[in-house]
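Minutes, methods subgroup
Present: GH (chair), OT, SY

1. OT presented the first of two proteins processed in the latest run. Sequence and structure tokens recorded below as shown on screen.
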Amino acid sequence: MSAVYNRDEAAVRVRRQSRQPDPAVEAFREAILDKLTYAVGREAGSARDHDWFVATALAVRDRIVDRWTASNREADSGQRKRVYYLSLEFLIGRLLSDTLGNLGLTEVAREALADLGVDLDAVRAVEPDAALGNGGLGRLAACFMESSASLGIPAIGYGIRYDYGLFRQIVSEGWQREVPEDWLSFGNPWEFERAEVVFPIRFGGAVELAPQPDGTSRAVWHAAETILAVAYDTPVVGWRGRHVDALRLWSARAPDPIELETFNLGDYVGAIAHRSRAEAISRILYPSDATPAGQELRLRQEYFFTSASLQDLIVRHVRVYGDLATLADHAAIQLNDTHPAIAVAELMRLLVDEHGMAWEPAWAITRGTLNYTNHTLLPEALETWPVGLMERLLPRHMQIIYLINLLHLESLSKAGRMTDELLPRISLIDESNGRRVRMGHLAFLGAHKVNGVSALHTDLMRRTVFKDLHALYPDRITNKTNGITFRRWLQQANPALTRLLVETLGERVLDDPAALQGLVPLSEDPAFQARFEAQRRANKEALARLARERIGVALDPSALFDVHIKRIHEYKRQLLNILETIALYQAIRAEPEADHVPRVKVFAGKAAASYAQAKLIIKLANDVARTVNADPVVAGRLKVAFLPNYNVSLAESIIPAADLSEQISTAGMEASGTGNMKFALNGAITVGTLDGANVEIRDHVGADNIFIFGLTTEEVEVRLRGGGAKGEGAIAASPRLHGVMEALSSGLFSPEDTGRFRPIVDALTHNDRYLVTADFDSYWNAQRAVDALWRDPAAWWRMSILNTARIGWFSSDRTIREYAEEIWRVPLRG
């Protein structure tokens, strides 16, 4: 099926039907054959699907380069302000469909390949997912890059070119196992290696003050170790191919590939030990930080890509403008979470130590250039680093951080704004539990603007993690509610719905999300409801085929598809969903003849390798699925499916098939969420708490078109402050929940190991810090309201259509416009 519908592709269809030769198709076919022969080294008769993928990708890439060059030339010659987006993650997924769609070449490529006896869908399926992210943070970065290109904003995304990225998840006997995600095993046809773009990244050593001729002194960092950062560029094509930006990823290299003297002495392993240590930096995303070595590697990664990126953008600025004094006028740097927060100290080091600038103007430039996006309120996710580790690994940066802190605290004292109680709360050094550097505080002080990612999250930032800093600098925090690119999450992921929208609303809907509002009057039209339901049914049938192929579970497409897909974490409360699944299972078994709504529970997500409780939750989901799916009493009424190795491509298959979207995090703990937006865009109805962007989704789609349950943020705060994290009371007060806990305790779902889920039972009973038990009954009631709506198809499809119709505001194009106008101060085209 076509991934995108637009005027050019409609013309291709007309020509195909009339059997007229198409010069564009013929030219593209020849380009593919040329790449297959001279770049891949294959003949058409012996080529495999992957060979055709590489040849097609290279042919597409050739059509990007001229536009890319023109975009760069315009940015430089027109002296347009550039945006630099620093993110440890870029979850870009497969690029062939996205790029063909944005260039308007999907049908051209389909016909060209068909003429060669090749199926485009088979070719697209062999492209590996670029495993450069963990979840929402990395996917948001990818959406933002695509929207920046679509809006014509000169932007470069900076990150790490992980050799293996996030692990590939295998589920064996219900347990998660991690194996390397070798996405580069066959190369990457989209990227350009820039072997000439190399920057030294230094670690360790000592700092001395070198006297200068004018009587001052200059800090000189004598590093103990130097690693090279080598650039790889991937073009990011905007909608309709009008502008192309770049994703520049850094790969770590040792200055010398081998120590010959050591090798010649017979120590062959030792001769490349330094190389292994250097390359470990870009080997894998999020190495476990459960050990001191893991913590050090994580910090090395963060500094590595941040330093390389800052050095690179400084070189570019000097080449175009000649004077670093104007950096803030021509560059806007966005720090995506605290991972690149070391940029505050590193930019100061580069300006002061490397370019001889005085402290005060360097600090003004740093604060005028950097901006910081906060993504979490969870204390464990707000990065801090031990002072000892920082002093050993980045001694000059630690000096700079001390000085930033000193000058900041002194300025407040001189202004009469400092108190003994305030000082330890706003200091960059946390002295309460060992001396640690607060990276969020550092990013806040060094940023021009600090933004949250939903209205609720931003308000909570002001009231919690940055309460004291916000009181001192009340104009610094602003809100930029997240968004998603509709090109990927509607047009690419759901071509059936896209065709329906274009046929109903016209092609304007492809360019203007506000055009979706045209569906509102159609939401009660039985004929349109039938067409809307038909595209969902087709997507559910496709997902059912995928589930049968991957896990051998048969799903009924006529059942309600209830979907919970995201990173496995206790605050996201997959556990609450599983407990409700058990309760539903027990209810069906207790009254098998009752009118139970057929329901399919779909789970997917990865747990961090060292997160034992999250991995146990995955095991519980799979054990519940094993029991439920084998029980003939509930056959036809309940199925549970855990789909392994959740990634972008799997999400693109699941989201268009979802009837119900699970967004059930503990209120006040999810910064925003973007999965909630993707589901609603495709017409899934949300069941969720008033958390993150759920609040704004409710406001846009209407309170009558979403199922809200559970404690509010304020009520959660009161419960946790008052010691309400014990679940004993809630369990005792709810016979249904008590029955679920009894089933877990008795080993009903783990007869071979009856004590397997005792840690879950104990945590919920004695330390339910995510208030799963407190929200259980409210959640159960919300799910029964969902059942009631499902029994009324006209009401269900009206609500589903209204979700699609009213979600246009959550386009990442809107978010990026707000960044450009209010934070980056980058003029937009037109």
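2. SY then presented the second protein from the same run.
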Amino acid sequence: MLLIPPVALKPAEKLSLHPDIQADSARDCERLQNLFAQSEAPEAVTWLVQVSPFIARVLQRYGEAANTRLLAPAAADREILRQGIAEQGDNEVNLMRFLRCFRHIEMARIAALDLLGRMPLGRMLAETSALADMLIEETLAAITDSLAARYGRALDDNDEELPLIVLAMGKLGGEELNFSSDIDLIFSFPNAGETRGGRQAVAFDVYYQKVAQQLLKLLGQPTADGQPFRIDMRLRPFGQSGPLVASLSALEDYYHEQGRMWERYAMIKARVLNTSADLAEQVRVMLRPFIYRRYLDYSAIDALRKMKLLINQEARRKGVADNIKLGPGGIREVEFVTQVFQLIRGGRENQLQTRSLLAALSACEDLQHLEAGAIADLLQGYSWLRKLEHVLQQINDEQTQTLPKDWLTRWRVLAACGYAQSEEGWQALLTEAQEHMAAIHRHFIDAIGGEEDLQAMDESEFAILWQDLLADETAIEVLTEAGARDPQACWQAISEFRTLLRKRPSGPRGRELQANLVPALIEGALKYPHAEQVLPRVFEVLGQIVSRTTYLELLAENRDARRQLTFLCQASPWIAHLLAKFPLLLDELIDPVQLYQLPAVESYRHRVSEYLLRLPVDDAEAQMDALRQVKQIFQLKVAAADLNEGVHLMRVSDHLTFLAEAIIEQVVLLAWRQLTATHGCPPGRDESDTGFAVIAYGKLGGYELGYGSDLDLVFISADDNQGETDGAKPLDVQQFYLRLAQRVLHLFTTRTMTGVLYDVDMRLRPSGQAGLLVVRASTLREYLVNDAWTWELQALVRARMVYGHASLYEQFSAIRKNTLCRARDLDSLRSDVLAMRDKMRNHLWQQRERQVDVKQMPGGVADIEFITQYLVLANSQQVPDLAIWTDNIRILEIAAAAKLLSEGEAIQLIEAYQVYRIELHRLALAEQGRLSERDFSEQANTVRGIWQRVFALSTDS
């Protein structure tokens, strides 16, 4: 077994001090003169007070009690601690004060003996660790006693008490705790059950949660007296989001199913406190297969490289060149060199299964994994740096491993380390530190890998943000330096997503891909000004594919795909939600050229039909999913091209409109095939002429479909549809067409795994919701002539057939044109149109401060549509060309040609309409409805002026 070598650091023989130290400590020395006089070694105590303000504070606060223990050679007595705790009774305030007093006095004693060179490093590490063990275990004993009256105790079947199991991690676990350190703990309990013997029986998990919370309060909560320890619970399963206490079976499941490499690394040091030897051995046996693999596990090298890389990034980010723990060649590198052999070979070589760094190094020497010279360099450097680390911390009881910048602290360090208290002395200390660290780093590189290997992994400065143990303040600093406008919100998104993924098992390969992919996506998102909005959208998508390594690999290995994902997510939450709902769309990101290359609008019928031909005709569910998928794919392409300004507004609506028409055709044919397979076809009908037609109103009818628009549809049938179908189960033809319409609606609106195809609104059919689902063409004509309201005639302006045989198309076109071209009483028409517009505005206009309703505001989209519809209904008898087209822009152009509007008015209306529609597209992609913060006052004023003239209204109407 190796021993820690003697360390050159020791106080100067004459205990002389720099004048700056003497001046800084004069007041402390004056206050403590009486204690100095009572001390066995007043000169030594005076020197300690001047070198360590921490020791001075302890002596001032606790007086004779501290002075008596300051130079005592014996370690802390557990029995004295136990009696002191018992004397506090149930007074929690007094107990907390006593625990802090005990800790401070004992740590001042350890610091005093160490600074005076009277305590070897090995003993110092052991005593510091033993003090922590003692405080944890005795405080837990007091807590269980205090809870017994109310909750009883946790007893096994033999009435033996089951204690809270405490896993001491890190340096405490290895019994190598430094002077001013956090302690890393994990809490567990043996098995499920209920407490017995108290007023209120509770489940073990509830009971142990209360015990653990009380321990954290008593030992970790800062008070006016300080705190015994900073307790870190982030190493527990699922980190800060995981349960504070877990059963042993839950721990076993977690580590064997979801445990990560860094957790294996951490568990090397795990030591069981507060329980019997048998139970402690049970815990060790349970953890051993997770920590130590039966095979030679060379993946550990790569994992440790990544951990070291993150440390390097943090040091580089903070500019910490003088950190003797984290810097190149620091204390952490000695630990890494040792633990890489433990992780790789520990499963086969039992000597390496130890918590002690010294024992592990000794095993490496015995097994010839490291040469004797390397062992000597590592031990000497480790001991020297640990001694210096303790001096840095003993001055003010601060958790620091960074060499000081101010000269007063430097003088104290030099005095404690036996160097001349001068600039030359400081340079000599630095030189010796650098020599030790250079030797350590050389052996670290030999064991872990070359600098080139380490640098090759340095792909993203943001990998540090994906680490479970990263402090919030550090993360926010990283994000601030990266230019994040709202670093707090960014970090919240990252940490919440990390917590989410910890609860979703994704396997070793999935976790490896996440570790590479997420930092790259964070880096991409931070390039945009609103990264705090982009990150949650990207994470929403990623959250749907974490169990699909194919997609993770696609994004991890394809930089262009990552770039497109972050671009589209920042540009549109609508697209982000689309990708999250339907991850198969990520395939479209592989080739940006293909993503932004839209097909010709007239090719959609062929493309949609071809997509469905890949599937069995008798698999209705697959056909329904395929229709939804092809719609999503092409909508994504249109939106991507739109956001990249690769397609004009008019063409955006054209693409969405023609896509919808192609899908309508396939839906009708699919419904037809399903129905005729059972009932046969109506007389003289087949797929080429079904005798059935779909009339589109609204946006689809006007070639103005937008993202997420529903479909306003009316179904009609030919007048000669009579008799029965010719199948095995014949139906009356009218009943057949009713079922056909119902099947079409079912195919459109049923929510499958891939969502709804389109929402369909049928309220524009004759007699509205009270009317028949399918009407004959002649019935539609009669209704329009005799019963239609003016608003229904307005809707007819935008109506066109999008599916049906040519004969039905000609019949409907004639019905529409004849209806629109009828002579009308203009006063009644104007009155009806204005009344309807007022009614719509009263019911639908959304008025918000600093926002405008682009569609319903005065002078908005609806006003332009009403102007267009009024011009058609009022003038088609004289200008039949107004009844040809269904889209507003071409109608306005015809109105201008017929002098119903001046050319300037038509241009102004068209330009305003296009501006509004562009904004509505943008708002749809941003999922912001139709309320905009932009200023459209110029367009609105223009439209209102034309409205007044068209409807011959006074300016104050």
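Chair's summary of item 2: The longest helix spans residues 121-151.
Next meeting: continue with the remaining queue.
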